[in-house]
Design goal:
The chain is of the alpha/beta class and 355 residues long. The protein has helices spanning 8-29, 36-49, 60-70, 88-95, 114-120, 140-150, 202-211, 233-242, 246-264, 293-302, and strands at 53-57, 78-82, 99-103, 125-128, 153-157, 165-166, 169-170, 177-181, 195-199, 216-218, 221-222, 270-271, 279-280, 289-290. α1 packs across α8, α2 (36-49) packs across α8 (233-242) and α3 (60-70) crosses α7. The protein binds pyridoxal-5'-phosphate. The site of pyridoxal-5'-phosphate has 16 residues, from α3 and α4.
């Protein structure tokens, strides 16, 4: 028997009837761009998160990008991002013409370290992007307090953490704006790309709504230069079938994680994930530290068990940022110059899409 890292076919087999019906409903409606399915999903996600507004966009990357633009992040600004996350968290800062400032993460939950973030604040710092990496909530109380002290906007990157909670509140609803990804392998995944912005700020939600349709406030009336970044209608219908099952699926992930930890916690050279007090981890990934990582991965592969390295290289050490003028307060990989292949726009919203 082999156990792949992901097997999305089993979930489809479980949902087949409802899924086929939802997809047929969209095709028969002839409404393929925005429309009722997207609006209904937005209402359902807003209700799930306890947020006033949700806006469906084309991907998690675009959710972060449009949220930053709507918050007015632009040239001359610095944005604090964890040094250890998926590259999209930092790329979007560069799309806006601003500079990501890499902040170290704590070695247990791999979340942005509030102490290191405080040390990285300068007069140019405009925003901070905590990432709920692998489904574990970042320490939002400390991050929100830091943001309040320095007047920073908080953009939660909740791409890997749909349904995770901190102090009983769903992540994505804890900062000024929360951003989700519906990439197929995410814990709430579509059958293609998709993303969502959630916020309590009506003006911010409206601006994201405009930015996702070429900056239009009404048809063919463009207030700002925007993008084509709509959540696909078929994907909205797919996600509406899955959303009611999410809590149960997250509970199953938690049970499986507990079983892995029970089996692994006494193994020397292995560090199991833990849950910080007041946190509800949804284990988008069950991620261990392993002293003999590559040997372990080979051994698992020999047994037919899939495993992946998340992530092999930290962001400041990535080639894309080589010469980026990106300062990370002493983080390895710190260099100076311009990010490779990137010419940040000086017109907010006018830079070409990067996702
Ligand atoms: C932490 C994090 N942020 C952002 C993204 C970007 O999401 P998407 O792939 O939907 O653009 C991802 C997805 O892989 C992610 O893991």
């Amino acid at each position: 028997m082999s156990i792949p890292v992901f097997d999305l076919t089993r979930q489809y087999a479980f949902l087949r009837e409802a899924m086929d019906e939802a997809i047929r409903r969209v095709i028969e409606s002839g409404q393929f761009v925005l429309g009722r399915e997207v609006e209904a999903l937005e209402e359902e996600v807003a209700a799930f998160c306890g947020a006033s507004h949700a806006v469906g966009v084309a991907s998690g990357t675009d959710a972060l990008h449009l949220a930053l633009l709507a918050l007015g992040v632009g040239p001359g600004d610095e944005v604090l991002v964890p040094a250890f996350t998926f590259i999209a968290t930092a790329e979007v800062v560069i799309y806006c013409g601003a500079m990501p400032v890499f902040v170290d993460v704590d070695p247990q939950a791999y979340a942005l370290d509030p102490g290191a973030a405080a040390a990285a604040v300068t007069s140019r710092t405009k925003a901070i992007i905590p990432v709920h990496l692998f489904g574990h909530p970042a320490p939002m109380e400390a991050i929100s307090a830091l943001a309040a002290r320095h007047g920073l906007a908080v953009i939660e990157d909740a791409a890997q953490a749909f349904g995770a909670r901190s102090q009983g509140r769903v992540v994505g609803s804890l900062g000024d704006v929360g951003c989700f990804s519906f990439f197929p392998t995410k814990n709430l995944g579509a059958y293609g790309d998709g993303g969502m912005v959630v916020t309590d700020d009506a003006a911010l939600a409206e601006l994201v709504r405009q930015l996702r349709v070429h900056g239009a406030s009404e048809r063919y009336l463009h207030r700002v230069v925007g993008y084509n970044s709509r959540l696909d209608t078929l994907q909205a219908a797919v996600l509406r079938v899955k959303l009611p099952h999410l809590e149960g699926w997250n509970d199953a992930r938690r049970r499986h994680a507990a079983a892995y930890t029970a089996g692994l916690e006494k193994v020397s050279g292995v560090v199991c994930p833990t849950e910080a007090p007041g946190s509800h981890h949804v284990y988008h990934q069950y991620t261990i530290g392993a002293a003999r990582r590559d040997d372990l991965k080979r051994h698992l592969a020999d047994q037919g068990i899939g495993a992946a390295i998340h992530y092999p290289v930290s962001l400041p050490a990535q080639e894309a940022f080589a010469g980026g003028g990106l300062h990370g307060k002493g983080l390895p990989g710190k260099r100076s110059g311009s990010p490779r292949g990137v010419e940040p726009s000086h017109v907010p919203g006018a830079h070409g899409r990067g996702s």
